[in-house]
């Protein structure tokens, strides 16, 4: 048996699979995010520990025999978070999360140094780890002086389980401290933020074994020889779960954030596009992605202010796709990454009318998020990435209407996996399997069964193209607003 743990922003999912990769059971646990100031987003790492413990207890109770046969486990984790610990391993402050934009000034300063993009292959975004530490140095100097180690969120759990400070390439690539082409820490990048190599965890590949579960975690009742495998960043591990390892393979994710991801067989950065070029969670591979900070989060925001559930808002649009309506929405609720790298821009509606109702707003939100994903899709194509079709994953892809709209906006077929496909949790279990057996990732990380294929509506492609052009042209006006 193999265990995949998906550490998300709002909760953790645990998936138990057999050695053929079939799901045996799953469990999850939730926790909260704190927003102590505008643009801030933090979490207590202790919540992750409690969440993992609760999910594993539920799995153990439901599947005691299978749980006792676990040979290895691994993690998927949300990226860019900064967990700072002292020399004793005590957490110094809440983790600053991926969607926290407080360090935009520090990020811009780092990005202005020519070495940053050349060595890392990426724009230094405010959400990355390095500018977060620079912000702490400037604003919380007493804490910064005590930082002995910095870990990514999932790597805090690796340390908690094994006692070893370790990370792997895909998560390290999102720190702005890694030479992404060489797959090694860069002393030049570390120096930009006043950090040193001895504050960094050991650097592994995602399929490398970190160690065995330490005796201090005996309360989890995992087998004493259970291996802990390094794992990877959430989108890289989700790609492992859906078989997107190399050129021509990829996915579009309608989750809390939105992602268009393409696997790459080689390192081909183009930082000026604001596309992320990161190491994959398997050796010798990379991936590129464009990121929309508020995808289903935009619909959840509309749900909160209308008092209607996101599912009800979506269902009210019916099954028939229509041309884009006059009401337009710009989903920059937390700023935007690709292609704008703008933590300060904010979204909004235009062309509202006294007759506008919830359906008009819902259609506008879905359309605006689809157009933002088209921005990322166009940026990916500019790097040379090729996606003639893509998998559609994430909670928003359960909406037939939204998936059809997105397929029409991108003008490519979108394949939806079976509901039994567990994405990042399955990818983590597959990584655990490769780490334990030494199997070739390409033979294990295959595409899941496809439930259906949503094709573009050919009669509406032109209308969506025209509306997208207007959407793309509106950004400079939004940026200029006070």
UniProtKB/TrEMBL annotation:
Cross-referenced SUPFAM superfamilies: Actin-like ATPase domain
Membrane-traversing stretches: none
Domain of life where this protein originates: Bacteria
Catalytically driven reaction(s): D-xylulose + ATP = D-xylulose 5-phosphate + ADP + H(+)
Keyword terms, alphabetized: ATP-binding, Carbohydrate metabolism, Kinase, Nucleotide-binding, Transferase, Xylose metabolism
Residues bound to substrate: 79-80
GO molecular function: ATP binding; D-xylulokinase activity
CDD domains, sorted: ASKHA_NBD_FGGY_EcXK-like
Sequence ranges assigned to domain Carbohydrate kinase FGGY N-terminal in this UniProt record: 1-241
Domain Carbohydrate kinase FGGY C-terminal as annotated: residue spans: 251-433
Family to which the UniProt record says this protein belongs: Belongs to the FGGY kinase family.
Protein's job: Catalyzes the phosphorylation of D-xylulose to D-xylulose 5-phosphate.
Protein name (Swiss-Prot/TrEMBL): Xylulose kinase
């Amino acid at each position: 048996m193999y265990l995949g743990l998906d550490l998300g922003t709002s909760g953790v999912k645990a998936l138990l699979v057999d050695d053929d990769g079939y799901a045996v059971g799953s469990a999850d646990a939730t926790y909260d995010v704190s927003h102590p100031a505008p643009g801030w987003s933090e979490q207590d790492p202790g919540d992750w520990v409690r969440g993992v413990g609760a999910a594993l207890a539920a799995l153990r109770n439901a599947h005691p025999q299978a749980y006792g046969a676990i040979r290895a486990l691994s993690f998927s984790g949300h990226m860019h978070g900064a967990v700072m610990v002292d020399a004793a391993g005590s957490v110094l402050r809440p983790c600053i999360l991926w969607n926290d934009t407080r360090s935009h000034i520090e990020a811009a300063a780092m990005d202005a140094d020519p070495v940053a993009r050349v060595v890392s292959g990426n724009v230094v975004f405010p959400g990355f780890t390095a500018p977060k530490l620079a912000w702490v140095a400037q604003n919380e100097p007493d804490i910064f002086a005590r930082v002995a180690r910095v870990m990514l969120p999932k790597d805090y759990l690796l340390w908690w389980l094994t006692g070893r400070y370790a990370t792997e390439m895909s998560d390290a690539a999102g720190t702005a401290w890694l030479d992404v082409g060489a797959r090694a820490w860069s002393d030049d990048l570390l120096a930009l933020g006043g950090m040193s190599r001895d504050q960094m965890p050991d650097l592994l590949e995602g399929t490398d074994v970190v160690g065995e579960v330490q005796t201090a975690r005996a309360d989890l009742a995992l087998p004493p020889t259970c291996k802990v495998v390094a794992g990877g960043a959430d989108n890289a591990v989700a790609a492992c779960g859906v078989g997107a390892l190399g050129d021509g393979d990829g996915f579009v994710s309608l989750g809390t954030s939105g992602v268009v991801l393409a696997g790459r067989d080689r390192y081909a950065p183009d930082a000026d596009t604001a596309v992320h070029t990161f190491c994959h969670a398997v050796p010798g591979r990379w991936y590129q992605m464009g990121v929309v900070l508020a995808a289903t989060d935009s619909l959840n925001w509309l749900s909160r202010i209308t008092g209607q559930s996101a599912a009800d808002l979506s269902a009210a649009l019916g099954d028939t796709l229509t041309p884009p309506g006059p009401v337009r929405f710009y989903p920059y609720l937390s700023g935007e990454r690709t292609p704008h790298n703008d933590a300060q821009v904010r979204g909004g509606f235009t062309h509202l009318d006294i007759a506008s109702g919830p359906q008009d707003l819902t259609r506008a939100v879905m359309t605006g998020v689809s157009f933002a994903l088209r921005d990322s899709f166009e940026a990916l194509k500019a790097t040379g990435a090729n996606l003639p079709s893509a998998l559609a994953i994430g909670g928003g892809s359960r909406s037939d209407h939204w998936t059809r709209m997105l397929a029409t906006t991108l003008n490519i077929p979108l394949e939806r996996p079976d509901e039994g496909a567990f994405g990042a949790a399955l990818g983590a279990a597959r990584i655990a399997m490769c780490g334990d057996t030494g199997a070739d990732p390409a033979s294990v990380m295959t595409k899941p069964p496809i439930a259906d294929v949503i094709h573009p509506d050919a009669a509406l492609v032109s209308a969506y193209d025209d509306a997208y052009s207007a959407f793309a042209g509106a950004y400079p006006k939004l940026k200029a607003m006070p």
